[in-house]
Specification:
The protein is mainly β. The protein has 1 helix and 13 strands; from the N terminus they run H-E-E-E-E-E-E-E-E-E-E-E-E-E. The radius of gyration is 19 Å and the shape is elongated. This is DUF3124 domain-containing protein.
Length: about 170
Amino acid sequence: MRLLLLITVLSIVSCGTPNPNVNKKGEDIIQSHLAFTDTSEQAYQDTVYIPIYSDIYSESRLKSTLLTATLSIRSTSLTDTTYINVIDYYDTKGEMVKSYIDRTLVLEPMQSIDYVIDRDDNTGGVGANFIVAWGASKDTKPLFQAVMIGRSGQHGLSFITEGISIKN
């Protein structure tokens, strides 16, 4: 009987959802791109706001649909490196939920990185957002987007949001 219970428990635990933010080596995608760099060499710096929708209202304020959100950061330069200095996730109330990096993330020319907020993670709420501070040695224009996907009944939905500069 104990053996059957052990097999059942192990089967349930091993069938868990794999972490979507881990690469083939088992490393966290963001953490695998981190490096110690001198930010004073970043002649061009900016801060970007990217809206994220962890859930959206459907039919009324009392009913919502949970969404999976993917933050996508893309270097658009063929020659220059982009440095990501801050990736912070905020909730609807404007309170920081999580700071994703503690040192600079390096994106080589044309390289991209993404990070998934699981559908069941609704800590951000309807008004969640990412704040990303970045820099480069030249005036490049990286692309900051979020892709939200979900389903309600038999209907699927998806949409993107674009990051906007909020540098003061």
